[in-house]
Amino acid sequence: MDKIAILDFGAQYTQLIARRIREMGVYSEIIACTHPVEEVLAGGYKGIVLSGGPSSVYEEGAPLPDRRLFEAGIPMLGICYGMQAMAYLLGGHVVPAQRREYGGAELALEGTGGLLDGVVPERDNRITVWMSHGDTVMRPPKGFTRLASTVNCPVAAMSDQKRRLFAVQFHPEVAHTPQGKTVLGNFLRACGVARDWSMTSFVDSAIETVHRTVGQDQVLCALSGGVDSSVVAVLVHRAIGEQLTCLFVDNGLLRKGEAESVVETFRDAFKIKLIHVDASARFLEQLRGVTDPETKRKRIGAEFIAVFEEEARKLGRIPWLAQGTLYPDVIESVSFKGPSATIKTHHNVGGLPTRMQFKLVEPLRELFKDEVREVGGLLGLPAEIIWRQPFPGPGLAIRVLGEVTEERLHLLREADAVVQEEVRAAGLERELWQAFAVLLPVRTVGVMGDFRTYAQVIALRAVMSQDAMTADWAHLPYDLLAKISSRIINEVKGINRVVFDISSKPPSTIEWE
Fold it and tell me: How far is CA 328 from CA 14, 16, 18, 325, in A?
């Protein structure tokens, strides 16, 4: 399989570069810019992309690509900081910008063919691009041709056709550069890659790999009902059939009807061997009197491990554990920036103890979330699972602010069901990253009929996002907000007020706890 490497210099758009190239039918993977150059060169890559990044080439300790990369004969594309680093190392003239360029810009086309082949001028031989840079290339290195410029950037695109070295100051991977895919496509053509990466080919390959890796051994899968673990379960079952056992721990913190849906889908529809453990009483006991969100998460995580260990022990020796690790989980640990600071314990309950000594089956570890959904569709999973919104491992416990009790869970579960129904009816289920209800630890005065009420408050949270790293609050139509509010207040006894959260991430997080 032909593949492209993306050296990550800490750009916020690095994952987007990888996704765009995959969308064009070529497998791409992200490597830290500090990765040993010998291993990069031995990786069999047909092309290398140097990502953007927050550094200046003149900063002390600035990350720079190894010069041997430029001498290896592998086509390379520098983007933003990657262009500056390429120009700096190869003898071009790079200076700190007098005026930082951020946002939309007009790119004047000065060269033809090659990297800009097929780019169509929008007006006066110019196109719209997205810029985000400080340093500026004033003069390209020897052997390079200037292809484009902007008012603030004398060299906004350049190429050395003979050495197949290319660079752009703008970001072709973002939607704000309308012809960016044309630029990336030209680079892929220079790399001579076969565009044969597809989810269909991935499914066939993954099934074969799982079958070959596991052999005749038994495999255990921790099934939550979310899209990742669901796709893993069906894919592994397709590979090894009865050798797979799925373990579904019902912690009593799921959304309305979710536990029943999981059992019906996997045990009845897919005929997968499923063990359903109702441990809701145990989890509620662990949460009695607890109000601190971190304590909630840790107790739920510890109890999950305890239940999982007990049930796994009953099954005898099973050497393999299948889990839904995705590519963003993998590359977080190898990113140039490194793992981010802990804002809160991760949403997904995991971290099974090493003493359990499982070998891991992670067939999705090369995929992004949108690719996983596509795989789910190819495997025949129902749309309600494929498009199920991300749900935190601690479940509704971190959406019940304050103490978690059965009564408060019931209020939230019923209110959240209204939110899900109305968002679905409005046709927004696939547009929104998440939409959910939060039960606040406050009571407010209200009037229902001729009676004064002193009841609880639901906050409605709805966000738009690509990967949950950043998110903007969703501008839901007023009539939809009115309907959700009216239904919750009228149908959920104990709620007399609904508020709408209009904060983005950052500075807020998507979840309230």
Answer: 11, 11, 11, 8
Write the pLDDT tens digit of every residue in 410-434: 999 999 999 999 999 999 988 999 9
Residues 157 and 168: beta-carbon distance below 8 Å:
yes
With a CB cutoff of 8 Å and minimum separation 6, the contacts of 442 are 456, 457
Report how far apart, in Å, the C-alpha atoms of 442 and of each of 349, 447, 457, 503 are: 28, 17, 7, 20
Residue pLDDT, tens place only, 439-458: 999 999 988 776 888 999 99
Which one from 33, 80, 153, 246 is the annotated catalytic residue? 80
Note the pTM of the prediction, 2 decimals. 0.78
Cα–Cα dist 396/254, whole Å: 6
Q: Roughly what angle, to the nearest 10 degrees, separates helices 14-23 and 180-191? A: 70
- Residue 488 DSSP SS3: helix
Q: Pick the catalytic residue: 29, 101, 153, 171? A: 171
Given the residues 29, 101, 173, 303, the one annotated as active site: 173
The crossing angle, in degrees rounded to 10, of helices 199-214 and 369-378 is 80
Q: Which CATH architecture has domain 199-386?
A: 3-Layer(aba) Sandwich (3.40)
Is 173 one of the annotated active-site residues of the chain? yes
DSSP of 294-353: HHHHHHHHHHHHHHHHHHHHHT----EEE----HHHHHHTTSTT-SPP-SSS-SS-----
Whether 211 sits among the annotated catalytic residues: the reply is no
* Domain 405-500 indexed as CATH 3.20.20.30: no
The full set of domain ranges for the chain reads 3-191, 199-386, 405-500
Instruction: Determine whether 80 is an active site residue.
Output: yes
Tokens of 411: 């209020």
- CATH class of the structural domain 3-191: alpha beta
* 3-191 and 199-386 agree in CATH topology: yes
**Residue 151: Cβ-neighbour burial (10 angstroms; 0-12, 13-18, 19+):** exposed
